[in-house]
Amino acid sequence: MILDDLTNVTKARVARAKEQQPLAELRSHVEELDLTTDFPFEQALRQPQLSFICEIKRASPSKGDIKTTIDVPQLARDYAAAGADAISVLTEPDYFKGSLADLEAVTQTVSLPVLRKDFTVDPYMIYAAKRAGASAILLICAILSDQELREFFALADHLSLSAIFEAHNATEVQRAIAAGARIIGINNRNLKNFTVNFDNAKQLREAVPADTLMIAESGVKTAADIKELSGLGVDGVLVGETMMLAPDPKAKLQELRDGEN
Ligand SMILES: O=C(O)c1ccccc1NCC(=O)[C@H](O)[C@H](O)COP(=O)(O)O
């Protein structure tokens, strides 16, 4: 399955990164940063209206190349001007053609909270996210043990990073809750066959406690999609390909927002 491949290539990449810069060295740089923030990513989700997390994603396993030649700082400015509440950056290089440099380009250009969207399999990646200026990381329940979920979340918290626990089914939602999740992302993309079905978010809505922030991920294309998802009472939506391919991000985001009303 694709998640196994992504996990394996990511572990190998982290091992190579540690040869270039050992964990102790990276950690000491990070510990010099101001680690007290007010979790701006969570704040962006805690507002009465639906929050939009616009994603920078050059390519993906399901779609292949989406838009590989992009001016990342300009796109970040476009998303900010369009009214995005947060930005997600795919940093995985092998399947998504992303990088930490993309993430840094965003955090250095706009003041919006930024999610490092990657296949977190090692604490090293959490330190690297913090050093690059991220406000949040992704913890995918399907690739992490219960102990890893708890340990990685504790580290993220220590570094003042929010964590999105990504779940695809009720068991994963329960595991996220047991690990203390404050944000749960329901991915509507089936990672075995890449089909997208909002029924996933619908069926799991009740399983997510009212005091836990919930994000619906993947497959958002139209105002009608937003109407359907906002009707579930989700706090935020993560929109990738649609925003990447929009000739006018501001007009597209407005069109989507209109679906909420
Ligand atoms: O997008 C994929 O093909 C994919 C495949 C395997 C694991 C993760 C994948 N995508 C990561 C994401 O979660 C999406 O980029 C994100 O939810 C936005 O999705 P979309 O709006 O459909 O681009």
UniProtKB/TrEMBL annotation:
It catalyses: 1-(2-carboxyphenylamino)-1-deoxy-D-ribulose 5-phosphate + H(+) = (1S,2R)-1-C-(indol-3-yl)glycerol 3-phosphate + CO2 + H2O. PROSITE patterns: IGPS (PS00614). It comes from the Bacteria. Its EC number is 4.1.1.48. The keyword Aminoacyl-tRNA synthetase does not apply. Pathway: Amino-acid biosynthesis; L-tryptophan biosynthesis; L-tryptophan from chorismate: step 4/5. Residues 4-256 form the Indole-3-glycerol phosphate synthase domain. The keyword Ribosomal protein does not apply. One of its GO terms (molecular function) is indole-3-glycerol-phosphate synthase activity. InterPro entries: Aldolase_TIM, Indole-3-glycerol_P_synth, Indole-3-glycerol_P_synth_dom, Indole-3-GlycerolPSynthase_CS, RibuloseP-bd_barrel. Keywords: Amino-acid biosynthesis, Aromatic amino acid biosynthesis, Decarboxylase, Lyase, Tryptophan biosynthesis. CDD domains: IGPS. Belongs to the TrpC family. HAMAP family: IGPS_B. This is Indole-3-glycerol phosphate synthase.
